[in-house]
Amino acid sequence: MLGKGALLSRSFATAIPSRAPLVNNNFRIVSGVVLSRTPQITRDSTPFEKAYFDYSEKLERQTAAPLASDFYFKKGSLAERRWKEDEEARKRAMADPNLSLTDAVKEVQSIQQDEESVTPLSNKFETGSRLTEADKKNDIKSLDRALQRTLYLIVKKPRDQHSWQFPQGAVEDGEYLHDAAERELAEECGKNMDVWFVGRQPVGHYTYKFPEDHVKKNPGANGAKVFFMKAHVFAGQCKPDNKEVVDFAWVTKDELPQYVSPEYFDAVKDILSDL
Amino acid sequence: MSLFVRTGRLSLARQQILRAAAPASAPSGGGDQRLEIIRRVLFEQPAKEMPKLEGEALQQHETIERAWKLHQNQERESRNRSLERKFRKMEAAMNELEKTNDRLFKAAIVKSRHITFPRELKMPTETPSPQGWNHEYKPPVDATAPKSS
C-alpha cells in the first residue's frame, strides 16, 4: 500500500495520500459527528409564563385605544360581525378573573367554526399540529418527533459493549478533521441527508482506550482520540450501511443516557443543547 | 409656539398637517366620512391613562412584575451557563488537537473570510409544516461541491 503510493507520487505531480489512519502516541485520531436536527417549533409556555401573558394582555387592553373597526372592516360584512363577537367575548373576559382574553376568543371562534360550513370565510389556511404522529407512536427513527427539542443522531455498532455512539471514523493521512467527518458520515449513514457542517473547529473531544482483545486483533493503536465536529441536518433520513453501523436513532439530550455509556455521556453532554 | 408644545398631545408638525387637511365645510356624505375615518386613524393619539393602582393591588402588580423579571434572569443565566460549557468544551478540544497533531490543528484554525450560513437554517415557528419532515430527500445529481463554510 505504501509502495504503491510512493510509486504514484513519482509519476504524478501531486502526491496521492495513503489510506493509513493517523496515530499519535498510540492513540488513533478519530473524527466524530454530532449531527443535530434543531427545534422546528417554539417551546411550550410554562404555566407561570402563560399566567403572566394573560395578565399582561388584560393590562394592555385597559390602556390601549379601541380598534378603529370602521377603518379595518367593511360595514355589515361577515368579518366585521365575527370581530364584534370576539370583542363581546373579550369584554366579558375582562370582568372574569379566571378567564383569559385568548381563551375567551378561542371559545367564540370554535362556535364560529361550526357555522363555517354554512358561510365559509374566504381566506382559510391549514397549520400543522404541534404534536405529531411520531410523538404519539414514540418513533425513535422519525425526525418529526419532539419538534420543540434538538434531536441528535446516534448509530449502533455491531458489538455488545458501548454499541451506541455518535457516527465516527478514523482520520486518514493527508485528510483534515472536517473532511474525515463528512466522509465518515456519508459512508456510515448514507448520502440521503442534506447536511451542513458548522466549520472546521471541533466542538469537543473524548479519549478512550480499546479493550485488550480489540488491541490484540487490530494492533497499531491502544485507544482513540475522538474530535467531534458539529453539523446540522435539513432534510432526508439516515441509511445505515449495515457493515460498520447496523442501526440508528434520533434522540434528545435527555434520552441519550439510555443508549450510550456513562463515561461517553459525561464527555459529550456539555456539547449538546438542553432544549 | 411654546404653548402648543406644552399643551397638545399632538406634536406641532402633526397639528399643522391636521389643520391643512381639514375641509372648510362640514362633512356631507359617504366620501367625506371615509376621509374623516382615515384622518382619525392616521393622526389621533388617544391619551393612554394608566390605571392608578393602590395598596394591595399595587403590591400584587409589583410582585408579579418582580417574579417575571426573576424568571427572565434565571432563563438568561441558564442559557449563558450552557453556552459557557459549550465554549469550554471547544477550547479543550482545540488545546488537545494542538498537542496531538500540528497539521490538523493548523487546518482547524483556518477561518474563511466569507462565511455564509445556509438558508435552511431557519428559526423555529409556532406550528410545523403541514407536510412534516422530508424523509425522502435525495441529493441533486450534479452536486459536486459540499456545503461548507
UniProtKB/TrEMBL annotation, chain A:
GO terms for cellular component: mitochondrial inner membrane; mitochondrial large ribosomal subunit. It is found in: Mitochondrion. It comes from the Eukaryota. Residues 133-272 form the Nudix hydrolase domain. InterPro entries: NUDIX_hydrolase-like_dom_sf, NUDIX_hydrolase_CS, NUDIX_hydrolase_dom, Ribosomal_mL46, Ribosomal_mL46_N, Ribosomal_mL46_NUDIX. Keywords: Hydrolase, Mitochondrion, Ribonucleoprotein, Ribosomal protein, Transit peptide. Its main location: mitochondrion. PROSITE patterns: NUDIX, NUDIX_BOX. GO terms for molecular function: hydrolase activity; structural constituent of ribosome. Belongs to the mitochondrion-specific ribosomal protein mL46 family. PANTHER family: 39S RIBOSOMAL PROTEIN L46, MITOCHONDRIAL PRECURSOR-RELATED, LARGE RIBOSOMAL SUBUNIT PROTEIN ML46. This is Large ribosomal subunit protein mL46. The lineage of its organism: Eukaryota, Fungi, Fungi incertae sedis, Mucoromycota, Mucoromycotina.
TrEMBL record, chain B:
The keyword Ribosomal protein applies. GO terms for molecular function: structural constituent of ribosome. Its main location: mitochondrion. GO terms for cellular component: mitochondrion; ribonucleoprotein complex; ribosome. Transmembrane segments: none annotated. Residues 73-107 form a coiled coil. It holds the Pfam family MRP-L28. It is found in: Mitochondrion. Keywords: Coiled coil, Mitochondrion, Ribonucleoprotein, Ribosomal protein, Transit peptide. Residues 120-149 are annotated as: Disordered. It comes from the Eukaryota. Belongs to the mitochondrion-specific ribosomal protein mL40 family. This is Large ribosomal subunit protein mL40. It comes from Mortierella isabellina (Filamentous fungus).
